[in-house]
Amino acid sequence: MAANLEHLQIPLRAAATDLFCSWNAKAYLAHYYSRVEPTERLTMSFLHDAIENLPFAARALDFGAGPTLHHAITLAGRVREVHLADLMPQNRRALQHWRRGGTNTHDWSAFTRAALRMEGVTAPTAADVQRREALVRDRLTRILPGDASHRDPLGKGAARDYDCVTSFFCADSATSSITEWMRYVRNICGLLAPGGLLVMGALRRCHFWRFDGIHLPSPCIDERHVQFVLDAAGFDRAMQDIQVCDVPDQAPNGFETILLVSARARGAPATGGRNPRNITALT
What we know:
With 283 residues, this protein is of the alpha/beta class. Helix content is 35%, strand content 25%. The protein has a single domain (2-282), classed as Rossmann fold (3-Layer(aba) Sandwich). It has helices spanning 9-22, 25-32, 38-50, 70-76, 89-99, 109-118, 126-139, 178-189, 223-232; strands at 59-63, 81-86, 140-145, 162-168, 192-204, 208-211, 214-217, 235-246, 257-265, 278-282. The strands form two sheets. It has an eight-stranded mixed β-sheet with strand order 3-2-1-4-5-9-8-10, with helices on both faces. The chain is globular and about 45 Å long.
């Protein structure tokens, strides 16, 4: 399937390079994260369920976080320590600015309320939101550079023993090559401790996606490719959940379905997560 995109390789890469150089994290957040879109509600709900049985002593990494905190908000309600990693310095600066309580930071309260509702708080108050965001700042202990194209995505000598690694729309948004995507995913998976939990999201059957009028690469993967790369990375098939979710509102951006994945690495007894259903479809 990647061969169908060979004639687009140069312009797609050029577009990605242009976007990297001109990236405006603040504008991106204002455009896409001023409210909780259906796609993000799906990913937050899936993540909430996937980590529900993680031990509270767990340490989690959100790889490819961008300038966003909604996954950290969910993780911080469950684990003692959260790290965020991203390739772009602009994104890391935005995260650091929020963590330090800087002025004019992005308002994450809608996402914080959504996370609290998923945890059973029926009507979160402003005080509830402030407490959770203070908890996120306390448990968000490291913001790191990360590059999935490297064998050691966090750099030589960095920790490769996370209890949970999340990565949403990261590896699949970095390349139009299925081979490269598989390599990126395996590198990210290598950050897990034995028995660790991977929670991942990806665009499904998407040749390219649109952002700010620019077409950006996507390797046109589906659940078969995910199953293959999980098998190659040594994940236990009995502890996998691969879901296909419809997101029809995203059709103008180049995709109408996404993949949501949780999988347990081999090496230690499973400590929870969803009941495995292998490959399922949500409508």
